[in-house]
Amino acid sequence: MNPQIRNPMERMYRDTFYDNFENEPILYGRSYTWLCYEVKIKRGRSNLLWDTGVFRGPVLPKRQSNHRQEVDPETHCHAERCFLSWFCDDILSPNTNYEVTWYTSWSPCPECAGEVAEFLARHSNVNLTIFTARLCYFWDTDYQEGLCSLSQEGASVKIMGYKDFVSCWKNFVYSDDEPFKPWKGLQTNFRLLKRRLREILQ
Description:
Strand order of the largest sheet: 3-2-4-5-6
Structural class: alpha/beta
Strand content: 15-25%
Low-confidence stretches: 64-75
CATH class: Alpha Beta
Helix content: 25-40%
Number of strands: 7
Oligomer: single chain
């Protein structure tokens, strides 16, 4: 995989964060998924922060049932796949237990959800928590089943609330010490998305 795609960034810019992590349930014109990650390793009773970073990958249009989507994996690597490629090549060891946390602007597509679920099934030493700002195509059964497959393999899937946006802002944004400024409707959107996710996973 192209190293410019596979290797993580340190942080994102403020405008990028505000534009991509706004939690309006249905939001158009956001063509990338941003994935911020924390990797911790378990040492005794404590977790040691090992690495943090940011991946970006395209959000492809919903696949139509009557034709196959052809994409170049070198230039259209989804953020989740970029993370797995980097993590497996650079970090993962069978003798270490990991706590991985994602903050994502979109929830995974069905294909990525399936790949991540398969990864978790093969690696019992990795625990994954996903905080997502928005649910991608949450009305579509394929996307719903993808989220369910993650949950069934032990991933904890949650909607980002105010405290999660603040944490993401502090740890993954070039903020220049400016505080996070919540947008109008953040809490209302959070409650709606949380309720929708609960309905999907129940």
